[in-house]
Amino acid sequence: MRDAQRGVLLIGLPGTGKSTIGRQVARRLGRGFLDSDVVIEQRLGESIREFFEREGEPAFRDIESSVLEELTQPGSAPMVVATGGGIVLRERNRERLRTCGERVIYLRSSPQDLHRRLRHDTTRPLLQVADPLARLRELYEVRDPLYREVAHFVIDTGRPSVAALVNMIAMQLELGAAPPPA
Ligand code: S3P
Fold this sequence. Notes:
A 5-stranded parallel sheet has the order 2-3-1-4-5, sandwiched between helices. Helices cover 52% and strands 12% of the residues. By secondary structure, the protein is α/β, with parallel strands linked by helices. The protein has helices at 18-29, 36-44, 48-55, 57-71, 91-99, 111-118, 132-150, 162-175; strands at 8-11, 32-35, 79-82, 103-108, 153-156. It is globular. The protein contains 8 helices and 5 strands, in the order βαβαααβαβααβα. Helix 3 crosses helix 4 (57-71). 31% of the residues are buried. The protein binds shikimate-3-phosphate (S3P). Shikimate-3-phosphate (S3P) is lined by residues 14, 18, 37, 48, 84-86, 124-126.
């Protein structure tokens, strides 16, 4: 498939800037942008936090998998999609990310940076705990290898501004140098 016809999927922990950066990457590429959490909330008719707390995580993950499958249907218009941080937890989703033909970009941030950004967040069910930094460290430990397993590119979000990150991503996509993950 030619790169111009391929979509872009952003993956990474909550708070890495997938939506903010994704929206700007989409503008730069002249593509549409979708946030898969927003699609899920539209479908649920309520917030993810409410659904998650009432129905539990497995029910949320089922919906997340089916939305991922819809958003990566072969033949659909190439978009930029920001995914939820837990998208890589299910093998079925990782398989989809590896094989759907879209370019997958892992936005990596340290747990400390994420904690600084998400200190006051009340929307993410997994972070409503006494020690959110410890939770972010656990999530990082489990998920960082899974993000790397499916990503074509890893972009460190540490210091650069959003504009610089968007430039780096646009350049990586143009170079398209990395082979798809095995
Ligand atoms: C989750 C991350 C959230 C959302 C849900 C679960 C997770 O998305 O999908 O609260 O498991 O990390 P963001 O990464 O956009 O915050």
